């Protein structure tokens, strides 16, 4: 056996060990600065390797107003890639400084409402998005893999749209259905959300740690990511090389 061959074997063992270690810890996405409140300034979600599953998202709703955002930090919107809708589920793990009462919302890439939640149960004010358990192995609320927008908010800050008459329409009926995961309000299925939120309770701020299933790293950068690349001149470079 040559030295070169042994070196190759050593390299393979090392790579395998590193891959095993990262699987053990679990890929984790941490909110970069402050995720925005709209589809346009959502944070792109990837694991630290840049590809593969995303199993947790950690961040915080800091409340207040001030340095980061004059309107405060009461909503965080993430752009995610749902790779397997049949196992899509997002729940909060309890943290010491957790948001006392939060809500979660999911929109497709066009902003149409897909699912939302206020509370897991009358005893648990953490929201839960659970698409598992539809008939025939399908998702309960959606079946198409692809890009979605996930929002976590300070309750009772809810997604709405202003219709042509200037009347606000809530996209989900969380007042009538405050527990578990729910689909869009009747007649709201085709409305398009961009950035509108109802008023939060300023007392609902803190950290959150989302346990995530059915989500992979984004395959392509979103509008926010593209803007950063454009500033760095990387988009043009890539196009020239392609
Ligand atoms: Ca935030
Ligand atoms: Ca925010
Ligand atoms: Ca809640």
Q: What are the main properties of this structure?
A:
alpha+beta; Jelly Rolls; 6-stranded mixed sheet; 5-stranded mixed sheet; 13 strands; globular; disordered C terminus; binds calcium ion
Describe the protein:
By secondary structure, this protein is α+β, with helices and mostly antiparallel strands. It is 17% helix and 26% strand. It has three helices and 13 strands. The strands form three sheets. Strands 2, 4, 6, 7, 9 and 13 form a six-stranded mixed sheet that branches. The longest helix is centred in the N-terminal third of the chain and has 23 residues, at 3-25. One calcium ion is lined by residues 34-37, 73, 75-76. The site of one calcium ion has 9 residues, from strand 3.
In short, what is this structure?
The chain has 242 residues and is an alpha+beta fold. 17% of the residues lie in helices and 26% in strands.
Spatial separation of the terminal alpha carbons: 42 Å
* Domain unit count: 1
Major β-sheet profile: 6 strands, mixed
| Ligands (ions, cofactors included) | calcium ion
What's the β-strand tally?
A: 13
| SSE string, helices as H and strands as E | HEEEEEEEEEEEEEHH
* CATH architectural label: Sandwich
Q: Which whole number gives the mean pLDDT?
A: 84
- Strand content range: 25-35%
């Amino acid at each position: 056996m040559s030295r070169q061959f042994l070196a190759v074997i050593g390299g393979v063992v090392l790579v395998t060990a590193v891959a095993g270690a990262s699987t053990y810890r679990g890929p984790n996405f941490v909110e970069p600065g402050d995720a925005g409140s709209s589809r346009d300034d959502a944070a792109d979600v990837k694991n630290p390797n840049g590809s593969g599953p995303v199993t947790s998202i950690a961040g915080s709703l800091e409340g207040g107003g001030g340095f980061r955002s004059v309107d405060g930090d009461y909503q965080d919107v993430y752009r995610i890639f749902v790779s397997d809708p049949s196992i899509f589920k997002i729940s909060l793990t309890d943290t010491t400084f957790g948001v006392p009462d939060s809500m979660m919302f999911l929109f497709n890439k066009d902003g149409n409402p897909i699912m939302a939640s206020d509370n897991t149960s009358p005893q648990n004010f953490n929201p839960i998005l659970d698409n598992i358990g539809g008939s025939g192995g399908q998702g309960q609320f959606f079946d198409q893999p692809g890009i979605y927008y996930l929002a976590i908010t300070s309750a009772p800050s809810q997604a709405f749209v202003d219709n042509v008459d200037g009347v606000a329409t809530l996209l989900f009926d969380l007042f009538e259905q405050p527990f578990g995961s729910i689909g869009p309000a009747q007649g709201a299925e085709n409305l398009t959300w961009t950035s509108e939120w109802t008023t939060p309770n300023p007392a609902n701020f803190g950290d959150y740690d989302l346990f995530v299933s059915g989500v992979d790293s984004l395959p392509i950068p979103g509008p926010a990511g593209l803007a950063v690349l454009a500033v760095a001149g990387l988009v043009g470079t890539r196009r020239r090389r392609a």
